[in-house]
Amino acid sequence: MTDLERTVEFVRRKFADFYTAQSEVGPSSIGQREFGFGSWERKIETRHAAFPTKADLRKYLVMNAPFFISHSIAYYEFPTGRPMPRKNWLGGDLVFDLDADECPNHAKGWICDTCFGKTKSEAIKLIEEFLMPDFGFSSNEISVNFSGNRGFHVRVESEKVKQLDREARRDLVDYIGGTGLSIENFFRAKEKSWMENDRVKRQLQNMGPKPTDPGWGGRIARFAIDPANIAHLPKEVQKKKFPLFTQGVKEGNWDKVRIANKETVWGDLGKKVGVHMGDQIDQNVTIDTSKLIRMADSLHGDSGWVAKTFPLSQLQSFDPRKDALAFSSSETVTLNIVEAPKFLSREEEFGPFKAEKRELPLHAAMYLLCKKAALLSD
Ligand SMILES: [Zn+2]
User: How far is 262 from 266, CA to CA, in rounded Å?
Assistant: First the structure.
């Protein structure tokens, strides 16, 4: 047996132990979902599988311990049917896949507070600024889970979204991302006139959205007067004039402070207010109604972490490096580490490592093995 074969076998055995300890796993309406499974090399190697009950799925996971488990966001009459139309699509959840961007602090595939914190802010924005106020979904209809690697999945399960087709889902993605937003629609010129030295003076005033306006208009106004976003404002209002600018925007008057090229400036502001949903591949999870998504509370084969479900109220404080761990610190494993940056696991710091042999607690060892940054040592 090669070191790689021994490593894969070791990780698989640990994954099987994890599923053995779980009492129940699987999505709602499990009998109508299509499942896909991935190997050490590929995230989805087989698909078109189905399980009548959660107990059937658990039995499969304990026996096979796949490295990746995904299921359809869709509900089908015949989930094993092939080709796709034979499945008979009955509807689907609305799912958003928010993943950390590439980060200058480390090599591709790892996470740090900076990139993960940004993704978290986007998830909070999606839920609190869009799904709840604009679309009216309640906290009972929205669930969130860690993706298992570098982001979050936000899911809406509701009769209101079940029948949305691709086009409607594409429109939702565009709305939430602020794509194609015409900022000028929120501004209108209003003529102001007054008497001065017995003569009527006239001036065109730019009336814009107020913070209390619904939808996108109010969102842009609230963003503009939030001191946390001051760096995104033009230099004319960044310092002493910010209070005056804020006072004006609250009344819908965006001209209290003179700003050069204001059309361009406010247009750019709109782009910063939307939810950053990553590239086309991430957006496809929302749009493509035949997409498979990582099963919540399953293990992720690229991290050894749990794609943990947690209450919305814990999103702000969620940290996978302590909240998504599946493996203990009582067992230790000796590894030959190829290369790894400094990382946290169970609030302990490890690394950086380069071409060295190390004995690590199981939770940190599993992370490096799944990241393909190490092999078991003999
Ligand atoms: Zn980072």
Answer: 6
From ligand 1's centre to the CA of 107, what distance in Å?
9
Find where tokens 């802010």 sit.
121
ipTM: 0.99
Rounded Cα distance, 293 and 296, in Å: 9
* Contact of 37 with 60, CB cutoff 8 Å: no
Residues 148 and 221 in one domain: no
Q: Quick one: 115 and 249 in the same domain?
A: no
CA atoms within 13 A on the CB side of 258: 0
CATH number at 47 reads 3.90.920.10
Give the range of the structural domain holding residue 228, as residue numbers without chain letter. 183-273
| 41 and 83 fall within a common domain | yes
Residue 18 identity:
F
Q: How many domains does the chain have?
A: 3
- Cα–ligand 1 centroid distance for 149 (angstroms): 12
Question: Residue 99 Cα, ligand 1 centroid: separation in angstroms?
Answer: 11
Rounded distance from Cα 150 to ligand 1 centre (Å): 9
Cα(16) to ligand 1 centroid in Å equals 30
Q: What string of pLDDT tens digits covers the 378 residues of the chain? A: 999 999 999 999 999 999 999 999 999 999 999 999 999 999 989 999 999 999 999 999 999 999 999 999 999 999 999 999 999 999 999 999 999 989 999 999 999 999 999 999 999 999 999 999 999 999 999 999 999 999 999 999 999 999 999 999 999 999 998 887 888 888 887 777 888 888 888 777 778 999 999 889 999 999 999 999 998 888 888 878 999 999 999 999 988 888 888 878 887 887 788 888 777 778 899 999 999 999 999 999 999 999 999 999 999 999 999 999 999 999 999 999 999 999 999 999 999 999 999 999 999 999 999 999 999 998
Same domain membership, residue 87 and residue 172: yes
Find the 190 Cα to ligand 1 centroid distance in Å: 47
Do residues 333 and 314 share a domain? no
> 262 and 231 in one domain?
yes
